[in-house]
Design brief:
461 residues; mainly alpha; Fumarase C, Chain B, domain 1; Fumarase C, Chain A, domain 2; Ribonucleotide Reductase Protein R1, domain 1; 19 helices; PurB_bact; Adenylosuccinate lyase; purine biosynthesis
Length: 461
Amino acid sequence: MSHLPPQPLSPLDGRYRTAVTELGEHLSEAGLNRARVHVEVEWLIALTERGMFGSKPLDPSQIASLRALVSDFGQAEIDELAELEATTRHDVKAVEYLVRRRLSSLGLDSIAELTHFAATSEDINNLSYALTVKAAVTEVWMPAYRSVIALLRELARRHRADAMLARTHGQPATPTTMGKELAVFVYRLERIGAQIDATEYLGKFSGATGTFAAHRAADATADWPTISREFVTGLGLGWNPLTTQIESHDWQAELYERVVHANRVLHNLATDVWTYISLGYFRQIPQAGATGSSTMPHKINPIRFENAEANLELSSALLASLAETLVTSRLQRDLTDSTTQRNIGVGLGHSLLALDNIRRGLGEIDLDTVRLAADLDANWEILGEAIQTVIRAEVTAGRSTIEDPYALLKELTRGKRIGQDDLVAFVSALEIGDEAKARLLELTPAGYIGLADELVDYLDA
C-alpha cells in the first residue's frame, strides 16, 4: 500500500477547515505563541516604565518596535520559535529567547534580563490563554452564535401567526404557532448568550507559587501586588490575587459550561427542526448540484441539522471534560492542564461548525402552511381541552350543572379521531350558556392558539 502525503488528522483542519479557520487565528499553537510574545513584551514595557532596577522608560519608537513583534508576528516567527524550541524543549523559554533576540537587534541588551523577569511559565501562559480564549469567544464564536439567534428571531416574527398542531409526547396537542416555538429558542439562547457575555476572564502574575517571593527578593520595597494587578488589568483581563502557581481556571470552567449549555439548547433546536422537516411542516429547498442519496435521487436529506447535532455532541463532550478537569491541580501545580488546554480550540471549533450548519440549514427551509393547516384540520379532538375548560367555567358561574366535564370529554375524545361535525353536535347539545356555546361553535383547531402570536413580542421586552 502506498503512503499518503502528510494529512490533517482532525476534520476541523481538513474537511471543515474553511468553517473554523478564524478560530485558528487565536486558539492555534501559533496564536498562543503570539499571545505569549505579547505578554512578555508588555511586561518588559511595564517594568521599564516604572524604572525598575535602574532601567529607563523606552522611547515611543522602541516601544513601537517591540510591539511590532506582536503585530507583525507571522511565519518567520513561527519558524524561529520552532527552531528555538527544538533546543530548549520548552515552549515558553523559546518565546523568551525570541524576545531577547529582538531586544539585541534593537540595541536594548541593557534590559535583556528584564525579559520574563520573576515570571514562571504559567504567569505567561495563563494570561496568554485568557487573551486568546477571550478573543476567540468574543470575535469569532459569539458573532456566529448571534447570527443564528438573529435568523431565528426573523423566522419567529415571520411565522408568529402560522398555526400548527403541537405534539407533546409526540402526540397531537393544543395548537401553537411556528413563530412562538422558534421564539422559545431565541429566548433561551439569548439568556445563555448574556451569561457568556458576562464571563470574567481572569489572570494572575505572581510567580512560582503565587507568593511574589522572587519579586520581593529582588525589591522588597515595591508594591508587587499593585504592579501585578495593573499589568493584568492593563491587558484587558480581571486580576486574580489568590492563586497557586497556576490561575485556578474557574473562569474557564464557567465559560465552557455555559457554552455546553448553549450547545445543548442548539442541539434541541436541531432535533426539533429535523422533526418538523420529517412531519412536512418545513419543506427543504433544493440546492443546485446537491445530491441527497447515492441511490435515491428524490431525497433531500436534512444534513445540516444532523451535522450540527453531531458536532454539538462532540463539542459538549470535550468542553464539559475541560470544565471538569481544569479546576483541579495537585497541590501547587501539575501539568495536566497544559495538555487539556491545547484542545480548547477543538471544543469551540466543533461548536462553531455546528453554528455554521444551523445557520445554513435554517436558510434552506420554507414553512409549508398548507401542510400545517391540513394537520390541524385532521385533529379536531384537540379542542376537547377548550370545551371541558369552558364547561368548568360555566359550572362555576352557575350556568351549567354538568358533572365532571373532564371525564365527559375524555370519554368523547381520548384515543379517538373525531371531526368537526362530531364536535359541533356535541357542543350544540351541551347545557351551557348561549355566549359560551357560541364561542365554542366558532372555534377551530387553527384558531385555538391562545396568545401564541402575541407572545412573540416578548422577544423585544
